[in-house]
Amino acid sequence: MTEIRKPDQKAMEEAAYRWNHIAKPLHGLGVLEEDIIKIAGMTGSPDVNLEKKAVVIMCADNGVVAEGVSQTGQEVTAAVTRNFTKGNASVCIMAERAGAEVVPVDVGVAGSLEDCGRVYPLRSRRIMAGTGNFAREEAMTEAEARAAIQVGMDEVKRLKEKDCRIIATGEMGIGNTTTSSAVAAVLLGKEAAEVTGRGAGLSDEALKRKIQVIERAIAFHRPDWKDPVDVLKKVGGLDIAGLAGVFLGGAVYGVPIVVDGFISAVAALTAERLCPGCVDYMLASHVSAEPAGEMVLNVLGLKPVIRAGMCLGEGTGAVAALPLFQMAADVYSRMSTFQENSLEEYQEFSHA
Asked: Which of 95, 243, 254, 342 gives 100 a disulfide partner, CB atoms 3.0 to 4.6 angstroms apart?
């Protein structure tokens, strides 16, 4: 993979200096201040501009749904994807308020997408009509996994060329908490039961079946934890691969990428394992209610700005964080300094 440029240390130092001289208590905005400093490093400039925003939603189906691991059928993926294009989905309504463009990407939807709207045009980049059922066969080939990763990287490049300054990540794919749990179990070296939750809502019996399906698939395919592409092709999903490409693209093109929930975080972990250092171009939005949500963020060393028990998906958590990043950027760029107000500055004290 491409070698990742280190964040601009000088830009980060200048941003930290700016925060410390603004007329407010030191570090008063907590993680938001840290994230603005990170953004300065990502973009290579202490002049932080987040005016143009987008949420990229990778849409794809998962063959493992045939094993009864989801409460709903595969047809829901296509239905919700069509709703994205019509602006009639939770993330669309939230993105409108946040001032973000919605970018739905068909990277592997099995159902028909003929009745799409024009509010948010669909990006047709379909690799295949959904993955194979990893309980019985590998999810995809290595070439298909790599092609999906490239789709994500291409979207970041395209949006960067349109002057997009920050990108939130989202996904839509019935069964993708199963694929994400499988990938997380392998990459984290955890038992399936430790990282698998109820997704959009499962009974105790269905949850037990979901865990068993993942356990058997990992034992059967023996994915190599040291090779993230091998993990993706054996037990992953096209949406996870596409999002991993978005995170890689953020690092390559110097664009801040916002992690959404569990599925997005697993894609972020996959990207970091593929190309160490791309985590420096990620921001965490919230902590998913899925069991491994916080676990993955901790491994990545990312601090979320929202704790609200969200687990809707679509990119809603990442989009909910965009106004917070914008507000922090506004304070950072517009607020006067202690010197300009003829006030004595706060002093930094170390604590034993």
From this structure: 95
